Amino acid sequence: MNILIDNKSGAPIYDQIYSQIKSQIISGALKEDEMLPSIRGLAKDLHISFITTKRAYEELEKDGFIYTLPGKGCYIAPKNVELLREENLKKIEKHIDEIVRLAATCNLSKQDIIEMVNFSLEEQG
Description:
125 residues, mainly alpha, 2 strands
């Protein structure tokens, strides 16, 4: 598992950890039932407070990405297809918002955007 903390980022450190682990789970880089580093171990490796790491792990567990076995550690949860679908839908919505914003700067009509999407779909299919 590889986590990089960007101190210049506006994002809180716990959120950077959360996002990077979640991304690695969704991409398959971290496998189902794989053990995560201990909270204290990861904190030591990243040179941050264990409280920060603990918060990231708590958020990941709350959102269903990891599970904890008391006295044993934290593990990657089985992939929840509906959870992954929801994550992808949120990404699509962000991209659509960006497309709409960019289209407005180019004075594209709704029909222009639809034609571009249709063309892209035809190219893929």
